[in-house]
Amino acid sequence: MKPSARKLKIQPKPGKRIVKGVVRKWKRIQEILAGIDLSPVRILISIAANCGIAVREVCAEWNRDKAAQKAAALAYYAMFSITPMLIIAIAIAGSLFGEEAAKGQIVGYIQGLVGNKGAQFVETALKNANQTNMLSGSRPALSSLLVLVIAATGMFAQLQDSLNSIWKVTPKSRGMVTSILLKRFYSFLVVIGLSFVIIASLTLHAVMRTVSFYVENAIFGESLWWLEVSLELINFMVSYGLATLLFAVTYKYIPDVKIKWSDVWIGAALTSILFTLGKFLFSLYIQHSSFTSVYGAAGSLAVVLVWVYYSAQILFLGAEFTKVFAWRWGSLAIANLSHNLDELGEIEDSYEEPGS
Length: 356
Hints:
- The protein is 82% helix and 0% strand.
- The chain is mostly helical.
- The chain has one domain.
- Helix 3 runs antiparallel to helix 5 (139-167), helix 3 packs across helix 6 and helix 8 (261-287) packs antiparallel against helix 10.
- The radius of gyration is 27 Å and the shape is globular.
């Protein structure tokens, strides 16, 4: 018997395959939507199911990317970057509000985060740095300032590498010197951004104090509890907004990946919620436990280290959520769908019926 001639099938162009796949998918979606019950109960069930999927995928990605180890590495770098970073931020914010006011705001905020021990550690470090006149105008101080900038940006270079690993992207190939300089430059911009956050916090504090004094003394002539509660609520909302903005900028610009703001804001908002909740719980734990006494003289350092480690884990958890959201429901879902449809089209076009 003559061997059967092999069939040659002309492959359609990739663009046509994508269009055909999208049309098939759209018809299938229409069929599914026609049978969906849009009652509130069904909608709530769908939302709960999607939340469950997101949590499961985020946990899987968290474990796969070894985010806890990345957080430990970032905490190590942060311990050497915190003091230089705060010195630069205080120098910038202090030029407007005075060095003591800026320092007091930072120490007070850290005290609210990690208690008296952590604030004492930061205050001592800033005091020792101030005694060396690192930011004075002398020539040795200028070299010290350069060392400060390099030390302060080391943490952000590590953060960028970790976020790139989470997103599974490889930075563009540049020269070694160019790559290092760009990393330091972008990281220094983040330090400048932190300075403006401190400036905004100081401005808000001054405005709230002025409003409280004027309303209580000039208008009512007595202390008003509802005014204090309202101002505290405003302070909380502004602090939450600034934290969300800081996380959003971090997720948007530090990793070498292009994502839309619509993906970033959701991850940043969730991270800010977890950060605020963790701040409250950690503060309660430090106040009602003997954690610092266990480590003796190193208790202050241990408190700050644990807090930075926890904050780094929250930061990477938010990055994992942002990645999962972008790929499943966000801007990258369309690109992912096109890629899958392209592969599906190749499989279907190369498929031959049995016996043909």
